[in-house]
Amino acid sequence: MLTTTTCPLYYGKARISVEVPTANLIGIIDPREAKIQEDEFTILRQALQNPIALPPLKELAQPGQKVAIVVDDNTRPTPTWKMLPLILAELETAGVQKEDITIVFANGSHRLQTREEQARLVGEEVMANYRVTDHNPHDKSTLTYLGQTSRGTPVHINHYVAEADLRILTGLIKPHCEAGYSGGGKAILPGVSSIETIISDHNYEANANPNAVFGVIDGNPIRSDIEDAAHLVEPCFILNVILDKEKRIVDAVAGEMIKAHRVGTQKLDRLVRVAVPEVADIVIAGCSYPTSVSLYQAANAALACTRLVHPIVKKGGIIILAAPCPEGVGGGPLYQLMSEAATPQEVVDKIAQPGFFLHDQWAAQLWATSLIHSDVYLVAEGITPEQARNMKAALYTSVEAALKAALTAKGRQGHILVLPDAPYTIPELTV
Q1: Which domains can be identified in the chain, with CATH numbers?
Q2: Could you tell me which residues are beta bridge partners of residue 154?
Q3: Which of 223, 264, 294, 358 is the most exposed place for a label (fewest CB within 10 A)?
Q4: Using one digit for the tens of pLDDT, what is the confidence trace for 328-370?
Q5: Given pLDDT bands bounded at 50, 70 and 90, which one contains residue 1?
Q6: 299-339: per-residue pLDDT in tens?
Q7: Considering just the CA atoms, what is the radius of gyration of the chain in Å?
Q8: Environment class of residue 205 by beta-carbon count within 10 Å: exposed (0-12), middle (13-18) or buried (19+)?
Q9: 352-355: which pairs have CB atoms within 8 A and are 24 or more residues apart?
């Protein structure tokens, strides 16, 4: 009789499980449980009262100043509605008037928010009492040119943010497939930057750099470009949170953009860097909401297996990516680039051509590069068989069906890793 181990898996807003043959299972790679000492609002208050390398907001802000608060869009689980009231209270104490405060959604190259999404993210009271606006990277009339980064990236950012006397960058610190980690200066670039700025920062050469991967900051050209851009607008005060598996605030950092962010990444590492004893033939990668809303976002689950200092899936291995993707493939020309090509390598070769410049090219480059390394078996009810084929992936109706096919392809002795929520994990191969 085959002995199996029940493995938990995030599938959008749902929690499912999959039975994995115990003899094949290397391990379940899950972030550590955080030891919560305080409630969420106490954690936020303590961070704001004890900022790193900058005075508290109530001292930093001055009456008459214009303040821009940059907040995450609906692709991140950042609890902005919990963070904003405390920030706004600090600004009120400092004498900043409501009419001098603008809240800007850091959409980057993502779609704009609906009015309902805006209200859900910041709260109805904030919507009613403050100027709240979406950043549109394509609308040149709303952008201000600031100069160039040391890498030569032209920096155009949202005019409310550029013209403010003080910028408050909110966000979430989590693993990121290009910048190492989210948070910090990413609220500026790509958050409130023009599409030209974003494409230049995310260009082929930068994404091909071996340091532009999950969990790496030193030598990462994308992270350094982000921070060069953000330094063109100062001061920038950040409030970044760290969430647990249930998306609760378990820690927070505030203060100077780089120094506070680095402390935050160290705090995150203690939770999400998990040792992996060996490279797997098959990785089952779950994906929680909201990263699961589209394949454009959920691709991060596959990238969390390959876009690492040391990939945790073998070359020619299989990644089973489980995410509902109710918005389908999502993104812009990602689907176009993938469907027009015969192979993933053809996609990469096209993007590598000198002068190639297309919105979302980085998403196609990363997805194609991952497919060159490993096959992807999709379990995604929002993706059609035709879309899966054009994305160069195989589509299955369940994780069990995908695992059965993967074991047939790799052999009954194939070694398996399970990442319950892959995009929020940094698997670290012990070599």
Answers
A1: 4-30+277-429 (3.90.226.30), 40-270 (3.40.50.11440)
A2: 148
A3: 358
A4: 998 778 999 999 999 999 999 999 999 888 888 999 999 999 9
A5: low
A6: 999 999 999 999 999 999 999 999 999 999 987 789 999 99
A7: 21
A8: exposed
A9: 352/204, 352/208
